[in-house]
Amino acid sequence: MRKEVLKKPKGKRRNDGGDLLLEKGLDHLTEELVGVAEEIEIISRESSTIEDIEGAKTLASDVLEKYSALLKRLGRRNRMQLEESIGPVVEQIQKGLTLLKEAPE
Fold first, then answer.
1. Among 30, 55, 87, 96, whose CB has the most other CB atoms within 10 angstroms?
2. Burial of 37 per CB tally in 10 Å (0-12, 13-18, 19+)
3. Is the dihedral of CA 19, 21, 24, 28 positive or negative?
4. The total number of structural domains that make up the chain
């Protein structure tokens, strides 16, 4: 009788739950970035209250800090991939934040 040897599937290897947690964190951060970019766009188009503008500034600053912290944790290749995939959204948020900071209060 022959013993069957189980082979691990080829492809991405996950050495522990760390990679999966990082992936989920990336997904969540991406959703946050897109949401903040949309919020800034809406606020910049409409006449908004000072509270709305301040709230958007805070949201943008917080999500940009999370993005920067994540970039520091990633290796060079992963950092480049992240910058390519969501870099344009981050740039949009940075420009929007600059405009909000320049807005008269």
1. 96
2. buried
3. negative
4. 1
